[in-house]
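Components:
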Amino acid sequence: MLNYILRRLGAGLLLLAVVTAVTFWIFYVLPKWAGVTPRGMAAMYVGKAPTPEALDATVERLGLDQPVIVQFFDFIRSLVFGDQFQFGRETVECAAPCLGYSFSTNSPVLEQLLARLPITASLAFGAAVIWLIGGVAVGVLSAVKKGSLFDRLAMSTALVGVSLPIYFTGLLALAFVVHGWKILPVPRYEPLTENPGAWFTALLLPWITLAFLHAAQYARQTRAGMLEVLGEDYIRTARAKGLSERKVIFKHALRPALTPILTIFGLDLGLVLGGAILTERVFSLKGVGAYAIEAIIGKDLPVVLGVTLLGAVFIVVCNLIVDLLYPLVDPRVRIAA
Amino acid sequence: MRKRTLGFVALGAAASIFLSACGGGDTGETGGDTAAAGYDAGSTQIVNPSDQAGGTLRYAIQSDFDSTDPGDTYYGFSWNFSRYYARTLLAFTPAPAEASTELTTDLAAGMPEPNEDFTEWTIKIQEGLKYEDGSEITAQDIKYAIARSNYNGGELPNGPRYFESSLDQEPFNVYEVDDPMATFTAVETPDDYTLVFHLKESFSEFPYILTQPQTAPVPEEADRGALYRENVLSSGPYKFDGAYEPGVKLDLVRNEHWDAATDPTRPALPDEVTVEIGVEQNEIDQRLVNGEIDVDLSGVGVGPAMKSQMIQDLETYENNLDNPLSGALRFVNIHTPVLDTACRQAIAYAADRDSLHRAWGGDTGGDLATNLLPPTIPGSDPESNLYPSEDNKGDLEAAQAKLEECGEPDGFETNIAVREGREPDIATAESLQESLKRVGIELEIKTFPAEDFFAQYAGSQDYVRENNIGLSVSGWIPDWASGYGFGYKITSGDAIQETGNYNTSELDDPEVNALWDQALTTEDPDERADIYGQIDTLVMEQAAILPVVFDRAMFYRPDNLTNVYYTSSYAMYDFMALGVDQG
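Structure:
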């Protein structure tokens, strides 16, 4: 078992290295192919109408003229061993894992990520609970009452949910619930530990909006999975030996149907933890996703790398947890040690 | 007073009726007057005048400061806002509209004195001024602030470099030399309250540079390079309340060591000032209308969604709207290395200006422009039009004649560069594409990432030549409201750069260049304005720039906001004047 976990973590580390390398490559090599000079890149980090001297100074400060491979290993080195940065006449220690300082705001990337993580985590876990419970419940009900009015209504709502983008549902929700009917106050995030009430009201709409999109998928998946399982021979056997319908559905049908759901849940949760860009943007939540989008627009490499790595870490970890959970959900699954 | 107020309300209402036709109520009244809220009242007058102190003034913004460090910022709103915590040598007069472009003193005890040929300027600061920690502000601190903001080896990359380009100083890096103050010889401090600036060349508009936030004092020992922005040592009426959190917030509270008697330009009414960063534009506009925030910090007005909603439902919103000129010119560069003069003039004749105007949202979007200098700038003559045509639809015959003159009687093909995602810019290019087709000029529209537009594409000499980029859609906001502050960087041959080139048409006309030089040795602002007018005409003759519109912004002015007025100097509300009505 431990061996299995270690192997998976090792593979995860390799994945992180690949993700970092690819991000570097996109950031440095693609512009080079398009004919962008180091000075051209530096121009993105200085004010309007910079002098050539200012550009050169920026090239040097950010190391933009170094070969990609050198910059890549510099990054890995400071990640593993930490680094030092020079600001004015001050030398600042950046302890491992050092993700460096933002090109545009000069704030430490790791610190910023950790400060924003609680917001994204609050959003992700809250929404995940809603979409998992809501989606699965609706899916099961739809499968059991296949062809009923409820089934058709639920599935068409799900179709709408899957097809509507968050910036549409989110803006609509804000316009009516907050600004129109004033049912909820203007959302201003506060940490759960400081003001649970404000935390809840600020996140309620984002949760529902984000969950709506995912719940729709989960409902459809669960329904399809349930229908397939309900047609299996052993279900007929279970019914034949006189089990109650409730037991048949929840004990015999739902558990195997949940396995694929759990897999996508792991991936989805990992993705959202790495930053729910659209939801955070629409609801002005200053989470990891909002940080990511600002960085991408501003071509702030250290931040882009930091956010990408964090996202990859979550996906690796969530995947691992899900794999470890499999045997609990479906006793037929055994982890090969 | 009462009478005027009533009269104004009536005028405002009348103006709004004709809004779609004439684009806003020019009341004809002059600055300094006050008025009740009405359509466009804040563009020319002080709305809700009040001296009631207290309360919290709440700002919000979608993007972020380029930096909160006064030595490292180039955003207009940031210059306006930084005055809360950073006092500068000189300031703009706190008054509505054009009256605000006049200079006045801030830290200074009097206006700077030039020598005969404007190469040496002497200025004295008031004695007894204090930072937030109670220590005294000295001339040396201002000298150091100028040094760190202009000679820093890229550590503080955002701000302009007017001092670097005008001071008679060998380049150095304030963070690398042993004694920055001794190395920085172009600025002398004969005593703790006097600064003497030595310039390379005559520069009659040097006092404008002294209004810039880079002249806000920074003691050498307080400087933390790029980290200074986290907690700026305040010289103004407010100080940071905890560190600035990039992308999240900045809170200010009163600075007890600030002395109102030394500072006539800041009423400093609110007790607290908060900035919420990273709020979606739609959300900002909604909150503004619902009274959940007081000011949109970006100072560019409401977003497109809210603007169209407001225009459709003017009756509801009109008393809270201002529609002043933003000070910006939207224009199309016609690149001189790609197209010769007669070809450029053909474009100027063939362009359908009426259609271009509509591309910018018609009358609420801006005023149709036929000259270079915005009407807010002395020397501008918005009536002049070297390429007139019936209903501004373009003069095809004249265009044809010019095409023959440049040897392309059947027209030609070229490319027009546009910034990605900027709808009005793209609409401008499309309009031009349509109207130039009428004389056989075929334009292909090429879009480029906005953030690299000048660094790598339209502003790169090589790229423009290699890719036959004949035109580019651009916009310009002056660094200060004078002909020089507006036009030098986009029309002077000396301002041409290999990359990041804002004189994108690469106009290098000896006559224009000579006039810029002449302006810089002319003391009288009126004479200078006259020179700027001549430059305007020459640039139009050369058809290096095709003016499109003088932008108008749509500002929403909440009822509880006091002392609201638009200043031409920052092209937005005067943040320093604002207060909140606490009922």
